[in-house]
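Deliverable D4.2, example record:
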Amino acid sequence: MKAGKTQKVAAKSAGVSVKTLRRYLKENTTVKRKGRKVIIIDRRPVMMLILSLDNPNPYWVPVHKKAASKISHHWNAINRFIKTNKVSHLKPYKDRGVFDANRKYHPWETRPNILRKLDSIGELSFVDIYRDKAN
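Output generated by the structure prediction step:
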């Protein structure tokens, strides 16, 4: 449907009935009309890798889009810290965290020694982490 197809064509290409597709859209998306165009906003949670004080290793949690953006910013701050060794990159995240899709709070990991340790043992190798997730 995002490509401009009708519900009937989209349902047929997905191998479901039109009724099933409508129910799925109602449960998982927000559908808005802008003139003749249909804008579909996906509300489903996405799985993101997080580094929290609760767990010494990165782990996957389901989060909504806004929280996913915050997690990405945290990872960028960790990367900048690892590259420059400036703790100032981590300060905006100290004593803060993010809620996952199940409303569980995950405080950010900002301790420099822990981050250096995780980096030295390869726990922060994003290429390896995402390769494992893709497989």
